[in-house]
Amino acid sequence: MGSAFLHETFPSDFLWGVGTSAHQTEGSWNQDGKGPSIWDHFTHTRGSSTADTASDSYVRWNEDVEAVAYLGTHFYAFSLSWPRLFPNGTGSPNAAGVTHYRLLIDRLKARGVQPVVTLFHWDLPQVLQERYGGWTNHSMVEIFAGYAAFCFQTFGGSVKYWLTMHNPYLMAVQGYGTGMHAPGGTSDPAAPYVVAHNLIRAHAKAWHVYNTHFRSLQKGQVSITLASHSINPVRTTPANVELCQKSMEAVIGWFAGPIHGEGDYPTSLKISSHGLIPEFSPEEMFFIQGTADFFALSFGPHTLRLGKGLPLFGQKLSLDLRQVLGWIQLEYDNPAILVAESGWFSNAHKTVEDTVAIYLLKGFINQVLQAIVYDSVPVFGYTAWSLVDGFEWNFGYTMRTGLFHVDFNSTGRNRAPKTTAKFYKQVITDNGFPQEKIQGYFPCDFQWGVTDSILQVSRKVKS
């Protein structure tokens, strides 16, 4: 693959977006009837940074809408807080939570911005963790389907793109394996595989709920956001290339294989799990296969940081988004792709000047453009992550990913556009990177000259 920068524009119908998640930005963790999530419990009991206030977006949601409008994006991707809508996980919905999201969706639509809505971005109601053991319990499949049905019924008339869950790989591995994420499980080596199994079945069930009961009227699309790292062989040998393939299958293929592929896990993953991975019945494989109307990809800093912990036998991590898009194209029969999360992080001390983040954001966007132009990958949208600085999970507030700087020391959580926001706004205006051709003449009195180094001249004289 060539790495030269491509000066070209995106297709005229390409969708530009920006995203956030509820727990990272909303705050108001126990206000207006919201129940605790596993992340509230996780951070409160470990004495770490919390998202109790975060970016205060539950209160200042209209400021976020104005920030989206400033960028000029076609869509705003955000997640619904499950415990804000259902404090007890199930049962009667919380009216204040329903009203909040209706207001947000209506305001976005009024500004000409489409909502792209994720049902579950890791903030499981704590009561479901205590009552069922969270995603280790198969009962969560039906519970999630019921929650999804409520959201489709309540908000679906205004939502054309749904994402059932965000990056289930991290939920399974970090939440129930390493313990770095909520709920902090570490005791059972089989737990991540069981959790992933139930997450996949829950997604498929939600997709079928939409397909059976809502699609004909609402005419929307449903997918699941899957994350990937990018990996290359240190030396291009058949053995190393095969190891890279297995590494991809062990991360994105774990979930994409059943949903976008043949309805089952990759063979290499079954072997490497040493019998810990559950089996799908033939009926389940048929039920799960094809339960995505497009491929939603996350390629962000958390995925890449996680990749650094993977066994790298003859492999090296890279920042090649184009390569990942090409891999998806070949592996899963050329699906339409939405880049549902892409961006970079900066250290906490960074304010509105963020040159490195601009450089990386520009590179990721251009890699998408190259994938479209050179490789004919059908990418139809890009989501810059994230709109505002917020709570960055196990990193707390030690890193920032927002296009808008949030002053966490101010009671108003004041927002200001960073240089990344201004850059992204220009990319959207230009619909990419048009070739700039500058033609003209210098002024008649322009002075041309030549110079030399004083040090060099003095050395020549002395010699």
UniProtKB/TrEMBL annotation:
One of its GO terms (biological process) is carbohydrate metabolic process. One of its GO terms (molecular function) is hydrolase activity, hydrolyzing O-glycosyl compounds. SUPFAM superfamilies: (Trans)glycosidases (SSF51445). It holds the Pfam family Glyco_hydro_1. PROSITE patterns: GLYCOSYL_HYDROL_F1_2. It comes from the Eukaryota. Coiled coil: none annotated. Belongs to the glycosyl hydrolase 1 family. This is Klotho beta. It comes from Denticeps clupeoides (denticle herring). The lineage of its organism: Eukaryota, Metazoa, Chordata, Craniata, Vertebrata. The gene is KLB.
